[in-house]
Design a protein that fits this description.
six-stranded parallel sheet; alpha/beta; 355 residues; 48% helix; globular
Length: 355
């Protein structure tokens, strides 16, 4: 941590302590505001310009019958994202954020000019049979995410939300989580967009096959230097592009709000690849997907702050990340304008938590 980062962080904490409210009353939101101040190296920051970046891609593992729809659905939602009519677009409207969708590897990309064209390939390979992508494709997907973030920054962006759209990506995310954290596929695999309960065992077995096919031991976890191979072999172009965007966001000093289990699997890999990325990452919510708690806990240990929302969400598209923006707005209003103990001529509360 540089001197100016440390100064901004301490100034933010001091400001919170001076406001006439129960110490730490807004919990993780106070810590999040202080972390943003540290990243931006000032307490005098604004979050007016907000962008939701949705990485769209398809996954070859859908050939295993792990989802109730195919890549045609990715194309339909991508078209809605570009048109401003998808679920996250409506949520973003309430949060005063714009939505940008990017094709980073769709099987059937729609002819939509407003969709950012950054495709690496027409979908990945089937992870149950081998690596999702080549090393060259991995590098291109990582760079695509970084370039998209750079483009967003050039247009003006105070804070970014990372989202994804890709049928089959709860399977790839579960596989990545299992490899990174040593989770059992039976306990880490969930229904995604609504897979019938009777198909969950098959989906978990597909994740198990993927781990074995790519040389990852069940229940072992990995060393940090293996994270890139995990993402390349078991992830998708959407997960890799989100990782690239998060890593670049740290360099640009733009806070990035991570969504649920899919986004968190990507973010955890990004933090293992480039640990300094933790400075820019904000966790929004704990997904209801089975791997959600383990991923949230692992990220919280590295970021230093747990997700602020626990609402059994699993919408995707960056929806949970967008929901956090409203909470941050409320926290920043108090941070900027809250009356202090001195203003109210009352004795400041003592922080006995430090005793």
């Amino acid at each position: 941590m540089t001197a100016d980062e440390a100064s901004a962080y301490q100034a933010a904490l001091s400001r919170w302590a001076s406001i006439a409210h129960p110490l730490g009353g807004l919990g993780t939101l106070e810590k999040t505001v202080a972390r943003i101040a540290r990243l931006k190296r000032t307490t005098d920051f604004r979050l007016d310009s907000r962008t939701v970046i949705v990485m769209c891609a398809d996954n070859g593992v859908v050939a295993e019958g792990v989802s109730q729809s195919g890549p045609e659905t990715t194309a339909v939602i991508a078209r809605a994202l570009a048109a401003g009519t998808s679920s996250v677009c409506l949520l973003a409207r309430a949060a005063r954020a714009r939505v940008v969708a990017a094709d980073v590897g769709m099987a059937h990309p729609p002819d939509t000019p407003s969709l950012i064209a950054s495709s690496v390939a027409r979908g990945t390979q089937n992870i149950a049979e081998g690596p999702a992508m080549t090393e060259s494709q991995f590098d291109r997907a990582l760079k695509a995410g970084a370039d998209i973030m750079i483009g967003i920054a050039q247009q003006g962006c105070d804070i970014a939300c990372l989202g994804e759209m890709g049928i089959g990506n709860t399977t790839t995310a579960a596989a990545v989580a299992c490899a990174l954290l040593g989770l059992d596929p039976d306990r880490a695999t969930g229904p995604g967009a609504g897979l019938p309960h009777g198909m969950l065992a098959h989906k978990a077995e597909t994740v198990r096959r993927a781990l074995k096919a790519n040389g990852f031991a069940i229940g072992r976890g990995i060393e940090s230097w293996e994270a890139a191979r995990v993402l390349r072999c078991l992830g998708g172009f959407d997960l890799v592009a989100m990782a690239g965007a998060a890593i670049e966001a740290r360099r640009l000093r733009i806070p990035v709000v991570v969504d649920g289990a899919v986004g968190q699997a990507s973010a955890l890999a990004a933090l293992l690849i480039a640990p300094e990325t933790a400075d820019a990452v904000i966790l929004s919510h704990r997904s209801s997907e089975p791997a959600g708690k383990a991923l949230s806990d692992a990220l919280a240990r590295r970021v230093g702050v747990a997700p602020a929302i626990c609402a059994d969400m699993h919408l995707g598209e960056g929806a949970g990340a967008v929901c956090l923006l409203g909470l941050l707005d409320a926290a920043l209003e108090l941070f900027a304008h809250g009356a202090t103990f001195a203003d109210l001529d009352m004795e400041a509360y003592k922080d006995h938590r430090l005793c």
